[in-house]
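Weekly structure sync, notes
Attendees: PL (lead), two postdocs, one rotation student
Agenda item 3: pending single-chain targets
PL asked that the sequence for the first pending target be pasted directly into the notes so everyone works from the same version. It is reproduced below exactly as submitted, 404 residues in total.
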Amino acid sequence: MSSISAPIGVRAPSSSSRFDELVAVTPPTRDRTVDFLRAFSILVVVLWHWVFSVTHWTAGGTLTMPNPIATVPGLWLATWVLQIMPLFFFIGGFANYVAWNANERKRGSVGGFLTARLRRLVTPIAALIVTWTVIDVTLRSAMPGYTGVLHWGFVVFVPLWFLGVYGAVVCLAPLTLRLHQRAPGRALLGVGLAVATIDVLRFTLRSDVLGFTNGLLVFVFVHQLGYFYGDGTLTRSSRRVHWAITLGSVGALALLTSLAAYPRSMVAMQGEPISNMFPPTACIAVLGSFQAGLALLLRPSLNRWLDRPGPWKAVIAANSVSMTLFTWHMTAYVMAVGVVDLLGGRLLAHPTAEWWAQRPLWLFLPGVFLAGLIAVFARFELASPHRPARCAGAALQTAGRRNR
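Predicted structure, written out during the meeting:
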């Protein structure tokens, strides 16, 4: 998750040449799997929202986005891999560990560390909010009776809750990193016990409000696990350890979801009284361990594949605009919905055969709009739009080492 802030120009050849330069200067010590998993996790979230949402208008004139999991037997099992948010926090723990140690070597301040880590989150969010504020104010002035985006299209702000939680975890990083440095095992165990305790109290007292405390702690746990990747503990471990983490986590997840308290799906599912994600339960923490184990098992093969210039160039390009892509993907989706409505198309409220047949459309059409939005708004993600490629190359030389 280390930033590869290669500037994106408006001319494609210039952008391509910058990426070629970054490919050329990437040191062999870089753990390219980290960068791949960061881009992969964001793309999975985007494609899930676009392709696996039964988006339709409610009677009240708002867009709603349930998923089809409850209607397809066994589809819940796919969420154990495709609910990818825990993996993002695991990789985030690696990135923040690396950045923290680099900051300490330079004798930087905690404020400087937090500013550097949060800047790339805050700027794209600000661009989204300002843009939608201008659009909403303009439409309210021009269209009497216009209900506002917060009523009809709150879905465009879906990415913000995730980025807000990640930002909070980053703000806690100076504390959690020090805890890891002093007692890594006890720090991770302590957070894990806190997550489990809150779940027990939540279900005993039947208090979903109490459960929202885990909205932060669950992701702190997975982030804390990422520190063990950053300090080399996990990468120096044997394949047996990686298999033990993976299979042990699958077993724990199977056990938890066999209990009445926890649904089997890792995303909200129609017909279930609770969701493992809202608020997050201990299942999401265990899911993060499972996904971390899978990542470690796949890491040698991924690093070999990413040593090839083509795949590595694609990863660099994707990561250079990853926050813009994530922040604006629901706006692109709503734009696609608007086009379908204008052309007289139907938004189906149930996952029928016709709905499944439309899935390629809901991959292609939002993708067209997102490409345009990235071309306009990617500049806000980049710290310096005119910075030469050699600066990004220097960042590649110092971040994300492979701990062999």
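Discussion points:
- The CA atoms of residues 191 and 221 lie 6 Å apart.
- The chain has one domain: 12-398.
Action: rotation student to compare against the earlier draft before next sync.
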